[in-house]
Amino acid sequence: MSLEVAKKEIQQPTPPTADRNGNGVAVSQSVATMNRLRLNPNTEHKPDSYEGLQLDFSPLLFSSLERYLPPPMLSYSRDSKLNYMRDIILRYSPEGERTRAQRQREYRQKIISHYQPLHKELYTMNASNFFAPSFLKAINENREESFRRIMTEPSQGVFTFEMLQPHFCELLLSEVENFEKWVHDTKFKIMRPNTMNKFGAVLDDFGLETMLDKLMEDFIRPISKVFFSDVGGSTLDSHHGFVVEYGIDRDVELGFHVDDSEVTLNVCLGKQFTGGDLFFRGVRCDKHVNTETHKDEVLDYSHVPGRAVLHRGRHRHGARATTTGHRVNLLLWCRSSVFRELRKYQKDLSSWCGECQREKKERQSLSISTTKQELLRKEAKAAT
Q1: How far apart are CA 107 and CA 112, in angstroms?
Q2: Would you list the DSSP string of 27-79?
Q3: Which residues, 6+ apart, have CB-to-CB distance to 291 below 8 Å?
Q4: Which of 355, 345, 214, 227 is nearest to 283 (CA)?
């Protein structure tokens, strides 16, 4: 089985500029950009607030990333830190994605100015009304054993668990249908979640961004910190939240792919349907994304409304045909700007890529075998 992956065009950082630090001393950003991010956050540092600024990216992303800045930069002005962090983000953000993001911002402003929400309670995080009690209990305890108590792991790195209450699923489905009706009635051209799905909607576009930020920060990040620390699970700081729709008169299936995320949350909202199983085929880095699947990596998963699937974005997967009915899923692609920056300097990806792990084990096995043979040769020579 192979997977087509397009090469990403990397945007070069903006030219260095001079700014002044907190003491009024001129600082060349070209000097600052020679430093790398800290490997571990400065937990005692209180980041500046980036709320209310006209930004290309979420304010939460900048606040999170600031803790990883080189120590000398922490005393710089907010504008200086902002420019430095923006350069970092642009390095991993392809030009096509940024262009699409700009279009989405303009599109989003038009929607929010005119669209009237149907269920306003969805737009703030009311955990007790949203989540299954077992999930909420595990999050409140915030321990690995509590998470594992509610989870099954049918294949390494794929976790499933009860998450959403039926009432919340119904409200969100109703809100999405109301938004799509508004789009149809106003002849407003809807922007779809990605290039693979022709049906569905981006939830951030009609006001759910704040709620989804809270979902990622307070509920997905604690779990990811435990199970996906090797891909930046503890530093998730931005998201792409959307719903996808499958059925005979909608998208039928989804091809084999990887997500543009570090951690992906996938929750079935309903409705009545048959088919539509997810299939997983192992975690891969860019170098090995097209390599063959091994038997222990094969998993087929059947959706259940309200039940979540959590996995690495680089876990290769797809969706089989939905043969009857109508299936709607909530997707949250969670990203870490810190991990994406640090990955550029990482040589060994064996901690999370299945094929890198196998190659490392083969090298170790070969080294051990060679060492044994050399010892046996020396012993035989000494005996003679």
Answers
A1: 9
A2: EEHHHHTTSPPPSS--TT--PPP-TTS--SS-HHHHHHHHTTS-GGGGGB-HH
A3: 284, 355
A4: 355
Q: What angle do CA 366, 372, 375 make, to 5 degrees?
A: 140
Contact 83, 14 (CB under 8 A): yes
Q: What is the pLDDT of residues 114-131, one digit of tens each?
A: 999 999 999 999 999 999
Spell out the alpha helix ranges (H) of 220-353. Answer: 221-227, 337-343
The answer, yes or no, to whether residue 144 has pLDDT greater than 90, is yes
Question: What's the DSSP call for residue 208?
Answer: -
Helix, strand or coil, per DSSP, at residue 131 = strand
The token pair at 345 is 């300097």
Q: Please count the other Cβ atoms lying within 10 Å of the Cβ belonging to residue 207.
A: 18
pLDDT 10s digits, 231-277 = 999 999 999 999 999 998 888 888 889 999 999 999 999 888 999 99
For residues 176 and 45, what is the distance between their CA atoms, to the nearest angstrom? 40
Q: How far apart are the first and last CA of the chain?
A: 54
Question: CA 41 to CA 44: how far, in whole Å?
Answer: 9
Q: Which two tokens stand for residue 38?
A: 């800290």
